[in-house]
Write a structure and sequence with these properties.
The complex is a heterodimer.
Chain A (H helix, E strand, L loop, with lengths): L1 H30 L4 H11 L2 H12 L4 H12 L1 H10 L8 H9 L3 H7 L8 H24 L6 H7 L2 H16 L1 H19 L8 H19 L8
Chain B lengths: L1 H23 L7 H19 L10 H16 L4 H21 L1
Classes of the chains: A mainly alpha, B mainly alpha.
Chain lengths: 232, 102
């Protein structure tokens, strides 16, 4: 129970960030003619920002189901990498049903935060961590699609930086302590910015940009600093 | 009923990607390069997701930079995630007000 509660507590900032992002998703759904029920079902079955926004675009523009499946696959391919990373860190005794439940909660933020744990990641902690962000994601979508004027625009805009601030708070302390981590973070930022600026490449979907930046930065890091950096 | 098919496809594809490695890959990886690659993944993902998007995250660049500055300083002081997020929102909100008044 203690571990579950600790997970829930750690999930609060993710939840806040998710409410503001899913609120925007709900708004876009209602402006695209989707009902609140449909929007919330999408959020509750997907739990992913970039994938849902892209999917919504395709649905609204009347795109085909194959295009939808392919775009979802490409944008969310990074979860494959995260799931693999996580498989190395979770308590090996976790059962199949437990793994099925945990898999559902792998998002960029939940994954990154869970990896900050010392030692192996337990089922209870991870499920605790998933709980509030999941509720926030569904609830934010509901609010956004229902009442497009609940929050004044200034407040909504200010809230949308929350998620990035949280990312920064996760990456800076380990970057201070470990040169390899600092190297990987700076490389990834540099590649990501470059990809957003270079003419042809910036047409790529945000999912691809994240995959490419991650791959380059983590590979270079692994090449220069193999193994030793295990004392997290 | 295309919308129902769309929802099922999106949900199923997303879940399958998350599910497969965690459920079926039970070996411990020994290779030092792959191990360290996987350890670096979360940091690389977060770096790429944050930049450059954060520069426009709070609407105007001015408000975003104010929020970013608050987040950088407080994170460097190793404050908690909630504190850093709340301070960044407050800084962005304040900067936005100031920009609108000027």
């Amino acid at each position: 129970m203690k571990e579950y509660l600790k997970g829930m507590y750690d999930g609060i900032p993710i939840c806040l960030g998710y409410v503001s992002v899913s609120f925007a998703f709900g708004l876009m759904c209602s402006s695209g003619g989707l009902s609140a029920l449909v929007s919330v079902i999408i959020s509750m079955t997907n739990l992913t920002s970039a994938g849902q926004f892209a999917g919504l675009d395709i649905i609204k523009s009347g795109g085909g189901l194959f295009e939808l499946a392919f775009a979802t696959f490409i944008i969310n391919l990074r979860y494959l990498l995260m799931s693999l990373s996580l498989s190395q860190r979770i308590d090996p005794k976790i059962s199949l049903p437990g793994r099925l439940i945990m898999s559902f909660g792998i998002t960029d933020e939940i994954f990154a935060l869970s990896m900050q744990q010392n030692g192996s990641i337990t089922f209870k902690y991870f499920v605790g961590l998933m709980t509030l962000p999941y509720i926030g994601w569904a609830g934010g979508t509901f609010l956004g699609s229902f009442a497009s004027s609940v929050l004044p625009e200034q407040v909504r805009l200010a809230l949308s930086i929350a998620i990035y601030a949280m990312f920064i708070a996760i990456i800076i302390p380990p970057s201070k302590k470990s040169r390899p981590v600092l190297f990987v973070v700076l490389t990834s930022i540099a590649v990501s910015i470059a990809l957003h600026v270079i003419p042809v490449l910036k047409q790529l979907s945000s999912g691809w940009l994240i995959i490419i930046s991650t791959f380059i930065a983590a590979s270079l890091g692994a090449y220069l600093y193999p193994e030793k950096e295990d004392e997290k | 009923m295309k919308i129902a098919a769309s929802i099922i496809i999106m949900g199923a594809v997303t879940y399958a990607i998350r599910l497969l490695p965690l459920t079926f890959f039970r070996r411990r990886i020994k290779n030092p390069y792959i191990k360290s690659f996987l350890n670096f993944v979360p940091f690389a993902v977060l770096g790429a997701m944050t930049f450059p998007d954060v520069f426009t995250s709070a609407g105007s660049v001015g408000a975003s930079l104010a929020g970013l500055a608050a987040a950088l300083v407080l994170s460097y002081m190793e404050k908690g995630l909630l504190t850093v997020s709340a301070a960044a929102c407050a800084a962005a909100f304040a900067a936005d007000l100031i920009i609108r008044v000027i």
